[in-house]
Amino acid sequence: MAQGDKSKCFRNFSAGPGALPRAVLEEAQQAVSELPGTGVSILGLSHRSRLFRNMLDETEERMRRLVGLPRDYQVLFLQGGGTLQFSMVPMAMLPAGAVADYVVGGYWTRKAADAARHHGNVRVAWDGGDCGFRRLPKADEVLGKADAAYLHYASNETVEGLQFRSVPRASVPMVCDASSDFLSAPLDVRELSLVYAHAQKNIGPAGVTVVLVRDEVLAQRPSGIPPVLDYRAHAEARSLLHTPPVFSIYVVLLSLRWLEAAVGGLAAMGRINTKKADVVRSALRNFTHFYKHDVEAGFESIMNVTFRCPTPKLDALFVARADQAGLLGTEGHRSRGGLRISLYNGVTLDDAHAAAAFLEEFAHEHRSARIVRSAEFVTST
Ligand code: PMP
Question: Which of 47, 114, 224, 362 is deepest in the core (most CB within 10 A)?
Answer without folding.
Answer: 362
